[in-house]
Each structure stands twice: as C-alpha cells, then as structure tokens.
Amino acid sequence: MTPLPTRASNFSAWYNELVVRAGLAENASVRGCMIIKPYGYAIWERLQSIFDAAFKATGHVNGYFPLLIPKSYLSKEAGHIEGFAKECAVVTHYRLKMAEDGCSVEVDPTARLEEELVVRPTSETIIWRTYKNWIQSYRDLPILLNQWCNVVRWEMRTRLFLRTTEFLWQEGHTAHATQEEAQAEALQMLDLYERIIRDYMAIPLIKGIKTVHERFAGAETTYTIEVLLQDGKALQAGTAHYLGQRFSQAFDVIFTNQAGLRDYVWGTSWGITTRLMGALIMIHSDDDGLILPPKIAPIQVIMIPIYKTEVQRSAIVAQLASLQAVLTAQNIRVQLDDSDVHKPGYKFAEYEQKGVPIRIAVGPNDLQNKTVELARRDTKEK
Amino acid sequence: MDHCFQQVIDWLETIQTHIYERALRLNQQRTLLVDDYTTFKKLISSRAGFLLAHWDGTTETEEKIKAETKATIRCIPLDGQEELGVCIYSGKPSTRRVVFAQAY
C-alpha cells in the first residue's frame, strides 16, 4: 500500500487522497457531486442516528417535503432570494426525446414547464407555504419538524464533503407562538449540536453569532458552531437561525394567540450537513490515514488473524470469533477480517487508513500462550 | 482473554478522550489575541488559526479585511467577555473581540 502524501507537504492532496483511499467518497462524473461509499455512509449513518435521537428527545418529529419548489416561492422573502439566487439549479422541462441521429437524446422543447421549478437549496419557502395551511391558532403551535434530505447549491469550487453541489443534511423548521420560545429553540438546537460535536465527534468548537454580513439569508440571528482544522482554516460546522417573523410574513402565516389577537408566527431553522464528515477527517487524522472517535466509528475493533497453515487459521479464527461474540454482546462494534486475499501487514495498514480505533491480532504463538496483540490507532501504542 | 476484554472497553473510552484533548490543545495553541493589523495580516497569511481581534462592528470594515486578507469574521463568540479596545483596521472603539480566520 503506497503511503498518503503528508499533511506538511500538501495538506489538500493528503485530504483528497485520504477520503478516496479510506473508502469514504469519490468524485462523481458531474463536477461538484460526490459518491459516498459504504464506509463513508456508515459514518454518516452513525451521526444521523445520534442527532436524530437527540432531536426526538427534545420533542421534534421527522417529515418530508418535496425536492422541487415552485420558482415563485423563492421570491417571497427578499433577503432569502438574494442569498440563494446565484446557486439555484432550475428544472425547465419534463421530457427527453430521441434526437434525429437516432442514438442520442435531447430535451423535448415542447415539454417546457409552465412554472419553472427550483431544486431545493433549503426548504424554508416550501415549508412556510405549507405552515400557512397548518396553523390557525396557538393550539396548532409549536410545530417542531425536521427532515433528512439532500439539497443542491451550485458551487464553483468544490471539495469532497466540505463543499459539494449536492449534499445531505437535516433541516429543522419550527414554528412558535412567541418570540421568546423561538429564540430559546434556536439556542437549544445550537447547544444540542455543540454537545454531539464535542462529546461524540471529539471536536472542540466555538459557539457564536454571525455578523449581519455572514448570517443566513432570511434570518434575524444566525448562531453558528465554528471549528478549526489542522491546516489552520476554520469551518462552519452547524447553524441555528432565529427567523423572527420573516417567513411567516412572507407566506402570510397568521395565527390567533391566547389573548385572541392575530399575529404572525415566529420561526427557527437549523441544520448540520455532510460537511461534518470533512471536519471529522481534517481534525483527527494523521499521515497514516483516518482516526475516528470510538463513539462514531462504524467498526470500533478490527480482528486480524495471523497464520501460515490452514490448521493455524481455523484455530485462530475460532479463538477470535469467540472473543468477537463477547465484545459484540457488550454492544461493541467488532469486525473479524478472516479473508485470505491480503496478508496481515496489508490489512493492518488498510484498517489504520480507515481509522479503526483498536486492532486485535492473534498469531500462532499467541494461540499457544493464550495472548492477543492489541493496538491503538491514535497513539500506535500496543 | 478477560484482560483483553477489559482493555478494549478501557481503550475505547481513553481514545475518545485522548483525541478530544489533543484537538483541544491544538485549538488553544492556535487561538490568538491580536491587537494590530500588521501582525494580523502576518498571522492570517500563515494560517495561524482563530484570531481574536477587536472590530468596529461595520460591514464595511469586515469586507475590507476580507478583501485584503481573505479572513472572515467566523462569529461573535457567545461566551466572549466585554472588553474595551479599538478596531484593528479602523481604530474605532470596540467593546468585544470577534473571531477571524480563513475558512473553507
């Protein structure tokens, strides 16, 4: 296995190669889009399940809104359209036809949409348009809704996980009867993000407020979590927006409050994305590859048998399998790699590159002495 | 084997803590107070990390600093203390430090 470029020599090349070689993701044929490979997706699924459980523990529920948004919706909130107009993908047609050459396809010009549709860059507009139908009275509030989905923002300079044209995320959109409640919700979600990013992803961070210039298009206040990567550059790792009444005013979402008066609904939105994967990689990894925090690692312990003969192999694999059963029973995520395709040395390097926190190796001598070799990924200690 | 089992449990916790502390140390080393623009420019161009500096609160200054150094204001820290100072760029009064860095 050829070594990665070093961080000191070329940080950017180190990152790109690491992402590909650790089996996390690769570039797609459409520039700026990425293919998330099973190992990378397994990490994302771990993050998803941790965040999702925390959302539900704070009373949120999941729903799903459409990918395609009528173009006119985006014009309702002036600041919002100004922020997103430059990066929207637009659907104009709904049919292809065979070209005259008989072997390629082209857009059928007769199948033009009456109203063009925007591929969601974020869903405030379509969700607040829907909330107009859902909310009449304070009894309909609060709405604490989240969705897990993809969004598209046309990017010129892209990089795997950190900035991609299409990315995965969750977007929470809440509606409240009072200003105080909406402000408290935005801060609650910021604190929830902080706790998971720090306690699970092992990433230190700064919590703060964005300046007017940097805040979300359409928000009154944008709270942010900022992290520092090994190359000295910063990354915005998550945001929570206090929207005030901007979207309720834009979409005419009015309710009758407890005093019997009509008022606009107060809102928040908040999100974390597959960018977090980039932060995780760039903060913890070294020149030998990924280093994953055990709480996030899809595989926490990798077991590798070392043998020469088939007899040794079956005895060692049996030994490891029984240890695997013990660890699995304790909810530890253990994988036994008994494939015969690669030598142990190759496997050692491979799982090091994948950032598996602990390696257990057993060879013929260990079998005799009833010992195992344990190795830590973060310090290489044995 | 029993020993091995316990070691795995212990290590999973130790590793989690260790890599957080390692990242935290690096963050602390790379979070710097800066009070003059010359030093600021030097530190930003060498990607020194998070620079805590005074800012006059205007978008105009924010944009000029960005144009000259590629540094953006990452945030006004929530746990930041009130502290009187002068903006590193304009020299106008400021009441708290903000976090500057080049960002992805």
Characterise this structure.
The complex is a heterodimer of chains A (382) and B (104). Chain A is an alpha+beta fold. Helix content of chain A is 33%, strand content 27%. Chain A has 11 helices and 20 strands. Chain A has helices at 11-21, 38-57, 71-74, 78-84, 124-134, 179-199, 246-250, 275-284, 310-329, 344-353, 364-369; strands at residues 25-27, 34-36, 61-62, 68-70, 90-93, 96-98, 105-107, 112-119, 143-152, 166-176, 206-209, 221-228, 234-244, 254-256, 262-264, 266-273, 301-305, 334-336, 358-362, 373-376. Chain A starts with 10 loop residues before the first helix and ends in a 6-residue tail after the last strand. In chain B, the strands form 2 sheets. In chain B, strands 1-2-6-3 form a 4-stranded mixed beta sheet. In chain B, strand 1, helix 2 and strand 2 (50-54) form a beta-alpha-beta unit. Chains A and B meet through strand 11, strand 12, strand 13, helix 8 and helix 9 of A and helix 1, helix 3, strand 3 and strand 6 of B.
Strand order of the largest sheet of chain B: 1-2-6-3
- The 3D shape of chain B can be described as elongated
Q: Helix/strand/pairing class of chain B, anyone?
A: alpha+beta
**Low-confidence residue ranges of chain A:** none
**What is the 3D form of chain A?**
globular
> Which two chains touch over the largest interface?
A-B, 52 and 44 residues
Kindly estimate the percentage of residues of chain B that lie in beta strands according to DSSP.
15-25%
- Give the overall pLDDT of chain B as a whole number: 95
Integer average pLDDT of chain A:
96
Q: How many individual β-strands of chain B?
A: 6
Distance from N terminus to C terminus of chain A (CA atoms, Å) equals 22 Å
The number of helices of chain A is 11
Work out the radius of gyration of chain B: 19 Å
Percent helix of chain A: 25-40%
Extract low-pLDDT stretches of chain B: none
Short description:
The complex is a heterodimer of chains A (382) and B (104). Chain A has 382 residues and is of the alpha+beta class. Chain A has helices at 11-21, 38-57, 71-74, 78-84, 124-134, 179-199, 246-250, 275-284, 310-329, 344-353, 364-369, and strands at 25-27, 34-36, 61-62, 68-70, 90-93, 96-98, 105-107, 112-119, 143-152, 166-176, 206-209, 221-228, 234-244, 254-256, 262-264, 266-273, 301-305, 334-336, 358-362, 373-376.
